[in-house]
Amino acid sequence: MNFTVMLAQLAGGMVKSVEIFVLTLLFSLPLGLVIAFGRMTKNGLICNITKIYISIMRGTPLMLQLIVVYFAPYYVFGMRIGSAYRFIAVILAFSLNYAAYFAEIYRSGIQSMPVGQYEAAYILGFSKTQTFTRIIMPQVIKRILPPVTNETITLVKDTSLAFALAEVEMFTTAKQIAAKETTIMPLMVAGVFYFIFNYIVAWTMEYFEKRLDYYR
Predict the structure, then answer these.
(1) CA 215 to chain centre
(2) Cα-based distances in Å from 151 to 59, 134, 147, 191
(3) In the chain, pLDDT over 90 holds for what percent of residues?
């Protein structure tokens, strides 16, 4: 196979990988914050539900979660599922999984803030919402950027698990070409693609971390 043709096919798979990556972050980051609030609430029922949810999401393989999310509508509700639901199931499973990890990162960052900052804000007349959005959250973001970066880099590589639901992303495309052409070159090129993708992600996160240095 012509090298240019192979690159074009891999680039097509890369687009799918980027879609999974971006949509997962778009949904899992805010969902993780909501789950973190549930985990920290004084309401015992909500706290325990979120603890169980986080435990399940972190304690079972993502591939298993993909399969469950895809087949659950049929086996639980008797709904017919088509090929169009595959991509939705991938995004849903990835978002639910990563939200659990982000929730614990958020929680650790929020709970690491000194109580004195809350008390000082109260004395200055800040409401709870103002205290959190203007004082606490900016510092939390700075503190949690390194672990968030690690999870984000892991997500780049985990996009390859979409093959479990027959979603053809970059690594699946590389495997198909490699099997057809009996060469490992497509897999090596895919590895370079992943490395560049991760490098861009790491560089971007480092940029934001440096921009927030004034919160130290």
Answers:
(1) 25
(2) 16, 26, 6, 19
(3) 44
Q: What pLDDT does 39 receive?
A: 93
Q: What is the domain count for the chain?
A: 1
**Residue in the structure block whose two tokens are 């043709």:** 5
In this predicted structure, the answer to whether residue 216 has a pLDDT above a threshold of 60 is no
Q: Please spell the DSSP secondary structure of 161-199, one letter per residue.
A: GGGGGT---HHHHHHHHHHHHT-SHHHHHHHHHHHHHHH
CATH number for position 193: 1.10.3720.10
- What pTM, to 2 d.p., does this model score? 0.89
Cα–Cα nearest to 197, from 66, 23, 42, 18 = 18
Write down the pLDDT at residue 58: 94
- How confident is the model at residue 21, as a pLDDT? 95
User: Which residues form the domain of 180?
Assistant: 3-215
Token digits for 47? 């706290």
Q: Could you tell me which residues come within 8 angstroms of residue 147 by beta carbon, excluding any fewer than 6 positions away?
A: 105, 108
Residue (of 201, 113, 102) closest to 147 by Cα position:
102
